Amino acid sequence: MASATATPRRLRTILARLRDEYGRPVPRAHRAPVDELILTVLSQNTNDRNRDVAYLRLRERFATWADVRAAPVEEVEEAIRPGGLAPTKAVRIKEILRAIGDDELAWLETAPLAEARDYLCALPGVGRKTAACVLLFSYGRPDIPVDTHVYRVGSRLGLFRPRAPFDEAHDEMLRLADPDDAFEAHVALIRHGRRTCTARSPRCRECPLLSLCPHGKALTRS
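User: That's the sequence. What structure does it adopt?
Assistant: Structure tokens below.
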């Protein structure tokens, strides 16, 4: 069930205010879906810096994804150790690479969006957020990853019903956002979550969305 306050018009208003605050992000599709897939696995439960270090170490150690697929899991684990949860992620990466084989996933660019999403979500350990990252960042497809920042900001703004499951939040973002705004919706909400609408001590009184935010209004009444 959708939040009663969540409408496409409301999201457009939110994005317009965030655009004034942070600028409009420019999408740059990099057309490397396997790279994005592995990078997103490495991003789980860690920060961007540790993710990037782990990814660079993996690419420096192995020339191709086929080499990663064929390598002993212990070598993959050692390469990605800075990213945290290395034993789990090493196994998951190898499972994914075995599942896709030599497919470079270029067909994801033109396949029906639901078909592309379903294929990715059927891979070992791949959920909606990872699938959306691959589709959005690789090919600019109109899917919207809902990470912890997007979920927190969206929940506070009333875009999602209280304690909605993440899959439901993904569906809501797709319902609310114009396809042309998918990239901006994702990036703008993340920027706002990192800079203003933080998990602890959000800066509600400085927030350009305060008049639209039930959570912020409640915190600033006193």
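The chain has a mean pLDDT of 96.
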